[in-house]
Amino acid sequence: MTGTTLGFKNAPMEPSFSIIDNNGVLLQQQGDDSFPLYSITKTIIAALTVDMGVKITRPVADWLDETWVSQGRDISVGQLLTHTSGLRDYFSVSDYRAAADAGGTPWSDRRYADHTLMPPLLFEPGHGWAYSNPGFWSLKRICEIESGSSFASLVEERISNRLDLPSLTVAGGIFSDQLPAYEAGWVWHGLVCGTAEDTAHFMASPLVAPLAESMVSVPNAGPTYPDAAYGLGVMGDMSGTNYGHNGSGPGFSTSCFHFPGSGITISYFMPSDGSDDAAYRGMVALAAQNNTI
Fold first, then answer.
1. What is the pLDDT of residue 293?
2. In sequence order, what are the residues at sequence separation of 6 or more whose Cβ sits closer than 8 angstroms to the Cβ of residue 112?
3. How far apart are CA 258 and CA 204, in angstroms?
4. Is the Cα dihedral 279, 284, 287, 288 positive or negative?
5. Mind listing the domains of the chain with CATH numbers?
6. Residues 250-268: tens digit of each pLDDT
7. For residue 273, what pLDDT is reported?
8. Judging by DSSP bridges, how do beta strands 35-36 and 169-171 pair with one another?
9. For residues 178 and 9, what is the distance between their CA atoms, to the nearest angstrom?
10. Cβ burial, residue 221 (10 Å; 0-12/13-18/19+)
């Protein structure tokens, strides 16, 4: 399939990072391996949604009927983008965790939906905040339905080719030889892989800046994120000092943030099966060294 990689050989075993300035000039770099971006893929989905001109006030039911999202008439595209829809996540589903840990064939869309998009909402849309991977699967499907193209083709045509970032590709099947039993389909909203440098250029691009123009406060984010906020598929803080996204999953941790004050963008990727914040801590250390704020 165009735009799809079945995996990358010689999976990265060392951290990789990239720092670019406000003109896109590479300031520092270590490594040029491709990593699975995991949840940084959400920013890519959000950028596609906004760039395609999908109105964020429209209800999800305009694309996905009640057999897919039971309360889709009550949820807007914007609420999917900001995790304020009330949709639940599959990480709270014990059956999902057991199946993903066991490996094998990923769940079908139908099974994911039955566990996450069909049950009652956690709260009334717009009146709470809860991280939802299934919400971003819904956004991916909206982009596919609206365009008539696959997610892989959209990433290739509207991001990789347009911005000249060839490493950004959608993974399928077994994507890493370090994870022989873990398929990309366990990341339901889709999984983009890419280098630290290409990801930094994407995060610094005009496709992403509009996503951070309006942020909502994220409650109870913990001491690592004392002023946590979320925009349209981007993490950040309410004071506007940075925006970007972290990603974590089996084998790898990723983080990429843009700092508007200095114009610097930093990505830090690493092999990790530990803390979700592992790469974020590496990114923060590089940010401190480069006086980004």
1. 62
2. 90, 134, 137, 188
3. 6
4. negative
5. 35-239 (3.40.710.10)
6. 999 999 999 999 999 999 9
7. 82
8. unpaired
9. 9
10. middle
Q: How far apart are CA 2 and CA 153, in angstroms?
A: 6
> In the chain, what's the furthest Cα-to-Cα distance?
51
Q: Which stretches does DSSP call E strand in the chain?
A: 4-5, 16-20, 26-30, 35-36, 169-171, 192-194, 216-217, 228-230, 235-237, 243-249, 252-259, 264-271
Tokens 């092999």, located at residue: 271
- Tell me how far apart the alpha carbons of residues 20 and 52 are, in angstroms, rounded to a whole number: 27
- Look-up: residue for tokens 């983008």? 81
- What tokens appear for 277 in the block? 């914040």
For residue 212, give the nearest of 227, 226, 232, 228 by alpha carbon.
Answer: 232
Calpha distance 233→211 (Å, rounded): 7
CA distance 276 to 278: 6
Helix (H) or strand (E) holding 171: strand 169-171
- Please calculate the CA angle 61-65-66 and round it to the nearest 5 degrees: 105
Q: How far apart are CA 245 and CA 61, in angstroms?
A: 27
Torsions phi, psi for 62 (to 5 deg):
-65, -20
Closest CA to 66 of 75, 58, 57: 75
Q: Which of 285, 241, 238 is nearest to 266 (CA)?
A: 285
Token pair 């996540």: residue: 89
d(CA 179, CA 101): 11
Overall pTM surpassing 0.85 (yes/no): yes
- Beta-carbon contacts of 172 under 8 Å, excluding residues fewer than 6 positions away, are 1, 4, 5, 6, 152, 184, 185
User: Could you report the per-residue pLDDT of 151-180, keeping only the tens digit for each?
Assistant: 999 999 999 999 999 999 999 999 999 999
H-assigned helices in 117-195: 133-147, 151-155, 161-163
Q: Give Rg (Cα) of the chain.
A: 18
